[in-house]
């Protein structure tokens, strides 16, 4: 093991550049998948005819597919039908598709957890179905969704490493390039990569616990 060589300034800078790409992909994927999953979850909760059934089928399909296959599809298969995406956006699209299916189930479960009595009380007070959903059900449900959602977001951040298969210049890709220069760099490099992932994911878990305690 060569810690001194593995942690040379040029290598550390290279790893940080890859980590920045990882964080960008994760942040954009989290933001987009949250929006999509809330829309899908609400539509399924509202049981809109036809559309709800179509989305339910799509969600079950995606949930039972490996993320790696979806990444391959967005980067290698979409160009066959005229949709060519950069590695960065192909990775984001794959993550959004996969995570939206997962998180939409969290949203739907959260909405279903709200007591029917509150909904009936809101409707009897003169609120429409959509007003009840927006002002009564959704705010409470979102608070209950925080812990499982953050857990899913942590998984998403870790799943960005799978984009190494399409040579996205993220953290794992850069780590592999450094390891390729000297076999003695492998353990030191992967130890540092593990620490970088841990720090961000642990910070997310702390935020989740604080939000959960605040709304307890």
Structure description:
With 216 residues, this protein is an all-alpha fold. It has a domain at 20-170: MetI-like (MetI-like fold). 80% of the residues lie in helices and 0% in strands. The chain has helices spanning 3-6, 9-46, 51-63, 67-77, 87-112, 116-124, 129-159, 171-181, 186-214. Helix 2 (9-46) runs antiparallel to helix 8. The radius of gyration is 21 Å and the shape is elongated.
Question: Which structural traits does this protein have?
Answer:
9 helices, amino-acid transport, transmembrane, Amino acid ABC transporter permease, ArtM/GltK/GlnP/TcyL/YhdX-like, transport
Determine and state the CATH class of the domain at 20-170. Mainly Alpha
Distance between the termini: 48 Å
Largest sheet: none
Fourth CATH level, the homologous superfamily of the domain at 20-170: MetI-like
Kindly provide the radius of gyration, computed on alpha-carbon positions and rounded to a whole number of angstroms. 21 Å
Indicate the low-confidence ranges by residue numbers: none
Q: Can you write the helix and strand succession as a string?
A: HHHHHHHHH
Number of strands: 0
Q: Count of DSSP helices?
A: 9
Protein name: Amino acid ABC transporter permease
Subcellular location: Cell membrane
GO molecular function, one term: transmembrane transporter activity
Family: Belongs to the binding-protein-dependent transport system permease family.
